[in-house]
Amino acid sequence: MLLLLVVGIWFALPHLSGLLGFAKEETGAPEAVVPSAFRSSSSAPGHPVAAAFDGFNNRYWAPRESGDGVGEYLDCSFTQPVRLLKMVVFSGTSARKDEFLTQARPARITVVMTSKGGKESRRTIRLADEPGQQTFDVRGSDTVAVRLTVDSAYGTGKGRRVAVAEVEFFGHRS
User: What is the CATH number of domain 30-173?
Assistant: First the structure.
């Protein structure tokens, strides 16, 4: 019986590190994974795409044209593939309530995650019309790029642009 156990452990050794890594990934706290590059469909003067990924929620990206922002998007990419687990969005111009309503805010966004092999996975998220952090589960393996496309917005009107103060990703590096 002991010999059988030893033989079983011997054959399992090459696979243990993979199993332990998987367990750590599933139970370990996700870490911030910062995109290495980003671009957008357009940007209003003074509100570049970089503002949505700069770590500050008092600066924001907005598209060049005012309106509902439908079809406008933010793209970002990662130097190394990542396993995405969560995404945090601060919609509007700021996390501060007195500044939040000064521009339009995304109501629904389609998130498209592209893997190293080119496979795409989609998720539609609905944002609450409130200032501050909103966290969403997004699951993407070997993700190298993410596109967030505005599907609808709150607070649209003449001279108002859809604003995104910050987007952050959390997961594990592959």
Answer: 2.60.120.260
